[in-house]
Prior knowledge:
By secondary structure, the chain is α/β, with parallel strands linked by helices. It has four domains: 3-127, Rossmann fold (3-Layer(aba) Sandwich); 140-312, 3-Layer(aba) Sandwich (Rossmann fold), CATH 3.40.50; 316-393, Helicase, Ruva Protein, domain 3, CATH 1.10.8; 404-457, Homeodomain-like (Arc Repressor Mutant, subunit A, Orthogonal Bundle). Helix content is 48%, strand content 13%. The protein has 19 helices and 16 strands. It has helices spanning 11-23, 34-43, 60-70, 85-94, 106-138, 148-160, 177-186, 205-213, 230-233, 249-261, 287-292, 298-304, 321-336, 345-353, 359-373, 386-390, 411-429, 434-440, 445-454; strands at residues 3-7, 27-31, 48-52, 75-80, 98-101, 167-170, 195-199, 214-215, 227-228, 238-242, 263-264, 273-274, 278-283, 307-310, 342-343, 378-379. Strands 2-1-3-4-5 form a five-stranded parallel β-sheet, sandwiched between helices. Strands 7-10-13-6-14 form a five-stranded parallel β-sheet. Helix 5 (106-138) packs across helix 13, helix 17 (411-429) crosses helix 18 (434-440) and helix 18 (434-440) packs across helix 19 (445-454). It is elongated and about 90 Å long. The two termini are 45 Å apart. The model is unreliable at 134-139 and 394-401 (pLDDT under 50).
Amino acid sequence: MANLLIVDDEPSICEMLDIAFRKARHRVETANSAAAALQKLQNHIFDLVIADIRMPQGSGLDLLRQVRETYPETLVILITAHGTTGTAHQAGQLGAFAYIEKSHELVDDLKFTVERALETSRIRVENISLKRELRKERGLDSIVGQSPPMKAVFELILSVAPTNSTVLILGESGTGKELVAQAIHSHSRRSEGAFVSINCSAFQETLLESELFGYMKGAFTGAASNKKGLFEYASGGTLFLDEIGEMSLPMQVKLLRALQERKIRPVGGNEEIEVDVRVVAASNRDLQQMVRQKQFREDLYYRISVIPLEIPPLRRRPSDIPLLAFHFLEKFNRQMGKGIQGISSAALRPLENYPWPGNVRELENAVERAVALEKGKEIIPDSLPERVVLGLAAPLDQSVSAELPEEGLDLQRHIEQVERMLLEAALARSNGVRTRAADLLKMSYRSFRHYAKKYGL
């Protein structure tokens, strides 16, 4: 149920729309001029204004301009019996949600458009309210979500943040593990100290050791001066070890000693340095299984998993998808200087139905692409990646369905769609590292590069 204001100098139009929208359980007010509409707007709060363009005492465009300036939360739909391309363009420039020409299908057109406008408004208000609540009560404004699984994550963050215990964040690639680590740091007693992050999978063993512990001049070729390690830089703050499951066994021994003794020894150094660091680790791998397979040290596992915190994948919290999509829409609107006002219901449906193997990062990339390509006032399906619209996603460890539709299919095109989908999923899971993506697909790097070029990835 919403509050609608219908403005038209033709009484028959006002009466027809009044009856139609009251039947749809909306509260309706009518006005026969722009001036009368402004009087009603001063005394009531309306969710949506439906206004004719040609009216006495001010046009619909004049009314639109004043509504956008004085009541920015109220959406406006313009209708006209004398539509022109120039008028439609002007309406869009002034911020009209939609521009509809009067016809015998006016009521149906308006019902559909009003429903879409109210859905856009609802999601936008929910997103703003959620951000205000998190900023006011929790300060978790960098993490978007209101589903029960995410509320549980928020509660755990607030519980563990004030302690000095080591936290192990578990979750698939793209779920936002570093954002959670930053939230833990910002709510801790160490929030005035540094938050230092490193991805353990990005360094070979010797380089990772020198990054974490530092090195002395002459310790190896190219060590022209002494250099502090990240443990020292993070002293008094938090050190985030992302993808800790990729760390070699010898390096795990050195990390375990640093955590137990709270001391480090730079590469090539003889003296130990005391450090005061809280470690937050993260992994997208099953570390317990790695322990059983002797790929990860059991003593280190128990040392870093004092408090485990699991982030649910996006497919387990679908109610967060619209909030995230609108959050990213606002973000990329600002970055690209665009004025896209919303996401059409036709585009929102595939976003909600797609399983997002790359999680929040994949959704962010899809919205960024859509904002870059979109030429209208709202995101439409044509601006989304084809795999999202078609729902072409499957876990990499499952076989592809061999069911043949009754109407048949274009085999070559189907194979190419599956190939592209799997390559994109592998890139999403490997954080864009092509060598790791090639390993996931059990193919050579050269072959992966060939297919990536073929599909423009």
